Amino acid sequence: MAKSDIKRVLGSVRRADEKYGMIQDGDQIAVGISGGKDSLMLLFALSIYKKFSKKNFEIYAITIDLGFKPFDTTPIQNFCEKIGVEYKRVESSIGDVVFNVRKEKNPCALCANMRRGALNNAAKELGCNKVALAHHRDDAIETLLMSMFFEARMNTFAPVTYLTRIDLKVIRPFIYVPEEILSGCAKDNELPIVNAPCPIDGKTSRQDIKDLIGELSKKYPDLHEKLLHALDNTETYNLWDKYVINK
């Protein structure tokens, strides 16, 4: 284990938790597990954070099987048993609906919405009051730029979101963690990565934005931190708000 990296991850989780009040005593938290490095690192990090944070909460792991084959989650189940976390796999036909029934030209949005719905329902069935997702710093920045480039608005996901319809909070403890740190930690700790075989993996608009940011970062090495600070700094937006203009 690279101790410096895991300490950085846990320090970032603590920072997010303290700033946004993500975790309280008595919480039952379902961690969405896709099988990729980010979600497995979130499960691993929260299992450690539970021990030293002195907060009394429980974590569960849930995988939504989208129906793409092959997708063997046995390594994930074994890992959950090793760290003492209850694991649930939910079968679904989301992949078939998105690609064959609906034949979506831009399938990611519909797939994500259906996957989140299935995850939230599974979490409620387990008695959870929160769902933890593994969106990290780079995800937040990419979502912001995608919103600007493709939707002509400034928007990204929130660190904490309350879903009134289902009475569930969604938390994102990794918002301050760089993706490269998660990749290194997952490798160092030999996490059992099991990627679902999505037919458009690596061919999405998000991948285009990721590549663009990567190119810009070569010229501006602190680009990620500057963009993250812009997201976190809500006092100085100076956008074209009527109230600001007419003051």
Gyration radius (Cα, Å) is 19 Å
Average the pLDDT over all residues and give the rounded result: 91
How far apart are the first and last residues' alpha carbons, in Å?
Answer: 55 Å
Counting DSSP H or I runs of 4 or more residues, the number of helices is 10
Q: What are the secondary-structure elements, in order, as H or E?
A: HEHEHEHHEHEEHHHH
- Largest sheet entry: 6 strands, mixed
The number of distinct β-strands equals 6
Shape: globular
Strand-residue proportion: 5-15%
Structural class: alpha/beta
Could you estimate the helical fraction of the residues in percent? 40-55%
Strand line-up across the major sheet: 3-2-1-4-6-5
The low-confidence parts are none
What does this structure look like?
The protein is α/β, with parallel strands linked by helices and 247 residues long. The chain contains ten helices and six strands; from the N terminus they run H-E-H-E-H-E-H-H-E-H-E-E-H-H-H-H. The protein has helices at residues 3-20, 37-52, 74-83, 94-101, 107-125, 137-151, 179-188, 205-219, 223-232, 242-245, and strands at residues 28-32, 58-65, 86-91, 130-132, 160-163, 168-171. Helix 1 (3-20) packs across helix 7 (179-188) and helix 6 (137-151) packs across helix 8. The termini are far apart.
Write the layout of secondary structure elements.
Blueprint: H1 3-20, E1 28-32, H2 37-52, E2 58-65, H3 74-83, E3 86-91, H4 94-101, H5 107-125, E4 130-132, H6 137-151, E5 160-163, E6 168-171, H7 179-188, H8 205-219, H9 223-232, H10 242-245
Parallel strand pairs: 1-2, 1-4, 2-3, 4-6
Antiparallel strand pairs: 5-6
